[in-house]
Amino acid sequence: MTVALPHQRPPVDFRIVDLFAGPGGLDMAATVLGVPSVGIEWDPNAVTTRTAAGLETVHGDVRAYGPKHFPEANVLAGGPPCQSFTVAGTGAGRRALEDVLEFVQRLVDREDRADIDAALAKMDDERTGLVLEPLRWALDAIDDGELRPYDAIVLEQVPAALRVWEKYAEVLTKEGYSVDCDILHTEAYGVPQTRRRAILVARRDGHKATLPDPTHHRYRKGAPRPPRDFVLDSWVAMEDVLTERRSPFQVVSNYGTGGDPKLRGRRRSCEPSATVTGKVSRNRIVTDDSAERDLPRLSHSEAGRLQTFPKRFPWSGGDIAQQIGNAVPPRLGIHVLSAALGLAVPGKDEWHALAEWSPRSEAEADASH
Ligand SMILES: C[S@@+](CC[C@H](N)C(=O)[O-])C[C@H]1O[C@@H](n2cnc3c(N)ncnc32)[C@H](O)[C@@H]1O
Q: Ligand 1 centroid vs 72 CA: distance in angstroms?
C-alpha cells in the first residue's frame, strides 16, 4: 500500500505489523512517518488507549497469530514484555537468558513446533516464549512458500535483551538480512528522559541496516548542559516540555538506590527526566529550593510528554502510568523506523507533526473510510 503524507514526505511502500504493541509508541512513530501499522495487543487498557488514538489494533494474544494473518505487512516490529533476565548478573537472570538462547537455536534448527511449544508451556516464566515470538514470525515468513520474508524488522527491549538480539542478528544474517543492534540512549535522540533500550534493525534485498545516528548530546550526571555544536544538539530538559510548570522543580523518585529511602534518585527540571516507569505517578515533585514544598504530581499528559507522546494523546483505560512506562518514546521510534526503512532523517516537520498530533474526531475518521 502506498501512502501520501500530509507533510510532504515522499510516499512509502511499507506496512508494519507491530507485536506487543502497547499503547502505541512505535505506532505513533509510524503514523507520523505515514507508514500504516497494525498492532497486536492483549491488554484491554492499552487497547482502550489505542482505540481512542485511532491506532489500528487486533486485540488478542500474539501467539495466536502469524504472518499469514497479516499478508499485507512487509515490516515486522516488536517490543516483547520485559524478561526475567532483566536481573542480569543474577543466577536466575542468567538461566532465563540461557533458556531463551537455547529455544532460539531450536527454532533455527526448525525443530517440530509442537515439541517447542510443549517445552515452552513447561517453563516457569511464560515471557521466555514471548521474547521468541518475533523470531517465530520472521522464520515463518521465510519458510512459508506463499509469503515473502519481511523486508525490514525492528525490535525493542530492555538493555539486558541485547544478548538475545545479538543471537537474533546471527540467525537473521544467515537468512540473508543485514542487521545492526545496540543499546540506544533516548536523550541522545531528543527525548527529555534518560532511558536505555536494546534495539535491533534488519533489512533484506541489498539494503544495509543501520541504527540511527544520535542527534543530541548524552546526559552525564553532574556535568553542565553541553552547548549545541556542529554535530549534536544539547539534550532536552523536562522544563522544555512541561512548560505549564512555571518555577523550577525536582522529581524525587519513589525508590531509593539499593532500597535506601535516603538515596532516592532526584532530577532537576533543568535536566532530562530519569527513566519513566510504570510507577511514574508515585514520584514526588517538589520545589527546587531548600523548602522542598510538594507540588502536584505528574499528570498523565505530562508523563506522556516525557516519553514524547503528544500533549493531546488520549490516555485511556486503567493503569495509565504502566501504559506510559511500557511505551517506546515515539521520537525514538521515528528515528529508528526512519533508519530501518531508509527514509530521510527526520527533521522539524516530523517533530511538529508529532507535537501537534491530535486524535481524529469520529466524523473525520468516518469520512476517510
Ligand atoms: C513493552 S510493552 C510494548 C510497548 C510498545 N512497543 C509501544 O511502543 O508502546 C509490551 C506489551 O506487550 C503486551 N503483551 C504481553 N504479552 C502479550 C501477548 N501474549 N499478546 C499480546 N500482547 C502482549 C503487554 O500488555 C504490553 O502492553
A: 22
pLDDT tens digits along 48-93: 999 999 999 999 999 999 999 999 999 999 999 876 666 545 666 6
Counting from 1 in the atom list of ligand 1, the atom nearest the Cα of 27 is 8
Mutate which of 326, 335, 336 for ligand 1? The one with the most ligand atoms within 8 Å of its CB, which is: 326
In this structure, is residue 107 part of a structural domain? yes
Residue with cell 516519553: 307
Sequence-separated (6 or more) residues with CB below 8 Å from residue 57: 21, 38, 39, 40, 41, 47, 50, 51
- Give yes or no for residue 21 CB within 6 A of ligand 1: yes
Q: What is the CATH number of the domain that holds 354?
A: 3.40.50.150
Q: pTM for this structure?
A: 0.93
Q: Domain range spanning residue 57?
A: 16-216+325-362
